[in-house]
Design brief:
Blueprint (H helix, E strand, L loop, with lengths): L4 E6 L8 H14 L3 E5 L7 H11 L4 E6 L1 H14 L3 E5 L5 H6 L6 H10 L3 E10 L2 E5 L2 E5 H10 L8 H10 L6 E7 L2 E7 L1 E5 L21 E6 L4 H7 L14 E6 L1 E5 L3 E4 L2 E5 L2 E12 L5
Parallel strand pairs: 1-2, 1-3, 3-4
Antiparallel strand pairs: 5-6, 5-16, 7-10, 7-14, 8-9, 8-13, 10-11, 11-12, 13-16, 14-15
Length: about 300
């Protein structure tokens, strides 16, 4: 790739603060290769999208390397899916599901720069969410129901860190949780049902490798909808851990559907790429071939 100019987009708090050091290593390695770099290290998510957009509009970049977790990748795709500059995600967060699906899962600067310089990026689909008159795009999975409520509760815990806070949140949410009444419209077909959760997937995993929709593909022009129909709380505790291996797929209470446009109404909250989207109702549609990434996935 001739005349390379790479924007390094960093979450300084991810990776227990190791991301800035990793960014410095990549910048030094790029300099040795005569590759230009610009560092964007926003102090908080607020304003990060505006700063990213301003930089991308002011200079010609051949790539964006995001160093952080799914939250930073989520911010990046809001702009890169419009401006059409390819994205490489370095896994430096908690979940790293976007990187798991699209990158080498390497933090070696030389390997990363080899990959970005010598390989051609590919186009993948994204999901687009319409909620309360605004829109957001996501790369992995939008979740509603039990898992989203656990996420909501975990985010309120400022004391416990890492995965343990989700274990505590699960124990807090489970005793009071009841099946949720949903109204779904999938490609014009309406369904009313009760469910423990309804998720819409563009990628296979979320939550740090949980294979919620293992058959989901990023370039098939379709979204995969997973419905967990009502089960007892004991059965929920049995089913949910199986998501890590994908063994929940054959459970009789688990249903999968594919579609291009999905509307979801219920009294619950939605999360996508681990980020809070808001209270339902929402509409989700597939955006085909809308983001360029370097991907190891077929």
């Amino acid at each position: 790739m001739a005349n390379e100019n790479i924007l390094i987009f960093v979450n300084p708090k991810s990776g227990s603060g190791r991301s800035p050091a990793l960014a410095s290593q990549i910048i030094k390695a790029a300099s040795r290769r005569k590759i230009d770099t610009v560092l964007l290290e926003p102090s908080s998510p607020r304003g990060a999208i505006e700063h990213l957009q301003a930089l991308l509009m002011s200079q010609v970049f051949t790539a964006v390397i995001s160093i952080g977790g799914d939250g930073l990748a989520h911010l990046a795709i809001q702009i890169l899916s419009i401006i059409k500059i390819p994205l490489y995600v370095v896994p430096a967060g908690t979940g790293n599901d976007f990187a798991r699906s699209n990158s080498l899962l390497s933090t070696n600067p030389e390997e990363i720069l080899d990959y970005v310089s010598k390989r051609e990026p590919k186009m993948i689909d994204l999901g687009e969410i319409e909620i309360a008159g605004s829109s957001r795009r996501f790369g992995q999975i939008l979740s509603t129901g039990f898992d989203a409520q656990v996420n909501e509760r975990a985010n309120q815990n400022r004391i416990v860190k890492g995965r343990m806070k989700y274990n505590f949140a699960t124990l807090a949410v489970l005793p009071k949780f009841k099946p949720i009444s949903y109204e779904l419209e999938i490609d014009g077909v309406t369904r009313k049902l009760s469910a423990m959760l309804v998720a819409v997937a563009n990628g296979a995993t979320y939550g740090g490798g949980m294979k919620l929709c293992p058959m989901a593909k990023r370039n098939d022009g379709l979204l995969d909808i997973m419905i967990l129909h009502p089960v007892s709380k004991i059965e929920l505790l049995k089913v949910f851990p199986k998501v890590y291996s994908g063994r929940h797929v054959g459970h009789p209470a688990v249903e999968f559907i594919q579609g291009k446009k999905i509307s979801i109404s219920a009294e619950t909250v939605a999360y996508a790429d681990g980020e809070r989207i808001g209270n339902l109702p929402i509409s989700v549609s597939v955006l085909e071939d809308s983001l360029m990434v370097w991907t190891v996935a077929p």
